[in-house]
Amino acid sequence: MMNVYNFSAGPAGLPKEVMQKAQAEFIDWNGLGTSVMEISHRSKEFIKVAEEAEQDLRDLLNIPDNYKVLFCQGGARAQFAAVPLNLLGNSTKATYIDAGYWAQSAVKEAKKYCEVDVVDAKMIKEGKLAVMHASDWKIDPQSAYVHFCPNETIDGVEISELPDTQLPIVADMSSNILSREIDVSRYGVIYAGAQKNIGPAGICIAIVRDDLLGLAHELLPSFISYKVLAEKDSMFNTPPTFAWYLSGLVFKWLKEQGGVGVIEKRNAEKASILYDYIDSSDFYTNDVHTQNRSRMNVPFQLAKPELDGLFLQQAQEKGLVSLKGHRVVGGMRASIYNAMPIEGVKALVEFMKEFAADNA
Amino acid sequence: MMNVYNFSAGPAGLPKEVMQKAQAEFIDWNGLGTSVMEISHRSKEFIKVAEEAEQDLRDLLNIPDNYKVLFCQGGARAQFAAVPLNLLGNSTKATYIDAGYWAQSAVKEAKKYCEVDVVDAKMIKEGKLAVMHASDWKIDPQSAYVHFCPNETIDGVEISELPDTQLPIVADMSSNILSREIDVSRYGVIYAGAQKNIGPAGICIAIVRDDLLGLAHELLPSFISYKVLAEKDSMFNTPPTFAWYLSGLVFKWLKEQGGVGVIEKRNAEKASILYDYIDSSDFYTNDVHTQNRSRMNVPFQLAKPELDGLFLQQAQEKGLVSLKGHRVVGGMRASIYNAMPIEGVKALVEFMKEFAADNA
């Protein structure tokens, strides 16, 4: 088996150690003679898995006691509907900060449920894509909440600031949760589809401040009700137990790495290695201003786009896979989530150098 | 590793051959050097998995071309909301046949969205729990659809008749799909959470007749919209790819067994072995009338309920696990879905005989 570095944007590569452990105990977990996915979610064995996963996540993100941690189904797209249906209360309006594709997707769904005040925060700065400073985002004080997506996987844009508001802040952290330290107490709701930095596709984490649990729309489906999920320990319906278990293994792996602070430094180093090389090269470009470059998703273009196919083919031959850019923007994209080791990024840069030398 | 027979009601045991294959290729699937859960759902490799799973399911159930097969998230509880939100159209009413716990749970959710006409179909026949014949179910012709649950996992009740109506019939087949032959063309919508007869928890199949795709409520969340899922090949949002892949392996296993007709005979034989022994015994009882006994879930009570704990403990020591009845009814329950081999049922009966002899 070739050593493969997987740059998939999601579903993304999981830590090798996690996958090896899960494989070893796949059909005989915990000495039970069955898989963890073949036991009741209400068994004491699975409840221990569930509780440990929650506690490890609480430890990793320093989640205050007045926040519920919910394990949901349906991914971030489900939250695009769940957020307004859970949070609008008597309000008819919400503010959405638009810095890219996923923020816009959230807006589209929210418009079913309320008047959406969209703040277009994109701008061009020194010829590069950038995001306006948070102090320039005009937020309607009548809004029930302010929604933003701090990391746009397709555009490769990351926002390190928060909306400057007393309103509840809702963040779609699908692609950068656990990649850097955050102050959870500044948010009303944080949600994140698992398939980038948490675990396999099919589970979504929502971290919800207690005081926001009583604002649901009467037509909110129960299975995406924050209140119902909180009351039922995320077991109102049968949860995706295997995905929950794997997410728990990832949380333990993160703790073993030294926690979010350590992984943040590693992520910064990985991103620097890649961006520094791109900036030093005449053959590759990245269109995002340094102020907003994502540490997770690095889109780049070749000077000769007609060589895209050859680049992908030769990269794959070297075990550097899933580098094709998103279908809506083209080019290349290297997603370098927590599970990507520094060696993977170095191997990519090495290949990019060779490819540029051969094809300049 | 002890040979274990797993009688869990769900998440339930999967076929041993499926689990062994999934373990073998867990970290190096299809020669890619990664897991199937670590690749894009839009990759050609995963799309092949997705399409084969759908085609195999179509073959197994003889699904007509005018039905869409959707792979959803959220389980059957999500469908409890999705069904009225997708199907009500201009109607304000739906009829629900009540034969047990899960039908009642569907009613509770549906009441958020419409007037629910509940037909209480439960009755006592010769001292046993039974269900009235379909010809006695009074169906309001103003209903948008008629919903029923043909297998009640908790009560151990199965219904082999269909509502006698021209209205679209909606069936929650979570616990008996693929266990017996059905005529799909008689239904409007069939849905089934995977974690009993299909695959792991976290995925739900919906089989929807084409003409029912345009009736959605304006507040229907897009990720549970039948129309959106149909248009996007169940990839509106990132699907639970690993659960989809495992479900596909189960479908292939079913075909290898000879298809649904063969598995139906095996299921009938398994159920007979267990019910025949219970009926012949003075120590065990089952409360369901023969006309409505479930082939999938066999609840039974000990003559001395104070021995329940000892029964469970000794069963477990023999590798007969997850026999505890549902928390709302107590006693024992043996769930004998497709993946349970006949040998497992025979081993259970053998143990039950010994236990009765030791404790009569």
From TrEMBL, chains A, B:
UniProt-recorded Gene Ontology molecular function terms: transaminase activity
Cofactor binding note of this UniProt entry: Binds 1 pyridoxal phosphate per subunit.
Needed cofactors: pyridoxal 5'-phosphate
Record pathway: Cofactor biosynthesis; pyridoxine 5'-phosphate biosynthesis; pyridoxine 5'-phosphate from D-erythrose 4-phosphate: step 3/5; Amino-acid biosynthesis; L-serine biosynthesis; L-serine from 3-phospho-D-glycerate: step 2/3
Residues annotated with N6-(pyridoxal phosphate)lysine modification: 196
Cited CDD domains: PSAT_like (cd00611)
Source domain of life: Bacteria
EC number: 2.6.1.52
Catalytic activity, reaction form: 4-(phosphooxy)-L-threonine + 2-oxoglutarate = (R)-3-hydroxy-2-oxo-4-phosphooxybutanoate + L-glutamate; O-phospho-L-serine + 2-oxoglutarate = 3-phosphooxypyruvate + L-glutamate
Keywords of this entry: Amino-acid biosynthesis, Aminotransferase, Cytoplasm, Pyridoxal phosphate, Pyridoxine biosynthesis, Serine biosynthesis, Transferase
Assembly: Homodimer.
Similarity annotation: Belongs to the class-V pyridoxal-phosphate-dependent aminotransferase family. SerC subfamily.
Role according to the record: Catalyzes the reversible conversion of 3-phosphohydroxypyruvate to phosphoserine and of 3-hydroxy-2-oxo-4-phosphonooxybutanoate to phosphohydroxythreonine.
Protein name: Phosphoserine aminotransferase
Species: Vibrio zhanjiangensis
Taxonomic lineage from the root: Bacteria, Pseudomonadati, Pseudomonadota, Gammaproteobacteria, Vibrionales
Gene: serC
